[in-house]
Amino acid sequence: MLVFSPDEAMVIAVSHSKAVLPGGRISNEALSDRMFRHFYLGMTRAKRNC
């Protein structure tokens, strides 16, 4: 399972098609839509709780 920091999460959310992370580039295929949705929903829920 991949764990992202808030900064990395923003990079992924903004440029989901070609997110540039410290470990290199992650393609759309590597970061599946399902995983992205799950992660994005988790972020939005966390923001609402705050």
Automatic annotation (TrEMBL):
It comes from the Bacteria. This is UvrD-like helicase C-terminal domain-containing protein. It comes from Thermogutta terrifontis.
